[in-house]
Amino acid sequence: MITSSDDYYQFSITFHHFRLSFARSSSVLSSQSFRIQSAIQPCFVNMTTIHYEKWLMNATDLRRNCLVKGTPSSTSSIEMEGAKESEEKSDVYSTNMTEAMGAVLTYRHELGMNYDFITPDLIVGSCLQTPADVDKLRSIGVKTIYCLQQNSDLEYFSVDIGAIREYASTFSDIQHLRAEIRDFDAFDMRLRLPYVVSKLHKAVNRNGGITYIHCTAGLGRAPATALAYMFWVQGYKLQDAITLLLSKRPCFPKVDAIKSATADILTGLKRKPVTLTWKGDECSTVEISGLDIGWGQRIPLKYDEKQGSWNLQRDLPEGRYEYKYVVDGNWVTNNNELLTPANKDGQINNYIQVSDNDPESVSSALWERLGADDFDLTTNERDVIRQFLDDCPDDE
Question: How far apart, in whole angstroms, are the C-alpha atoms of residue 195 and residue 257?
Answer without folding.
Answer: 14
